[in-house]
Amino acid sequence: MLMAEGVRTGRIDTVRPEHTPEAMGRPPRRDDHGGEVYVYRRHGQPCLVCGASVRTTELQQRNLFWCPRCQPRFRSRAASGALG
Fold first, then answer.
1. What is the pTM of this model?
2. Cα separations (Å) of 65 from 16, 55, 57?
3. Torsion of CA 54, 59, 61, 66, to 10 degrees
4. Residue 67 DSSP label
5. For residue 78, what pLDDT is reported?
6. What is the pLDDT of residue 55?
7. Structural domains counted in the chain
8. What is the pLDDT of residues 29-74, one digit of tens each?
9. DSSP string, 17-36
10. What does residue 78 show for φ and ψ, rounded to 5 degrees?
11. What are the residues whose beta carbons fall under 8 Å from the beta carbon of 17, sequence distance 6 or more?
């Protein structure tokens, strides 16, 4: 959805309009690495959508950030028996 909107407007935003600082009544993110993001580089801070604490781990020498409430653990269809 965000990519389709980016193609339409000619720019890529990393948060939906309803989650911008203005829409949520909060100050904008101040960081040397870019604009608004949901979880990137926000370990231990509240998720901007649901308020859960953002988590991080390393995956193949890269930092991985996620919200445990908005982005629950993925279970493959194969693991759940849905493929056959």
1. 0.54
2. 18, 6, 7
3. -20
4. -
5. 57
6. 92
7. 1
8. 766 655 667 777 889 998 878 889 999 999 888 888 888 998 877 6
9. GGGSHHHHT-PPP--TT-S-
10. -65, -45
11. 23
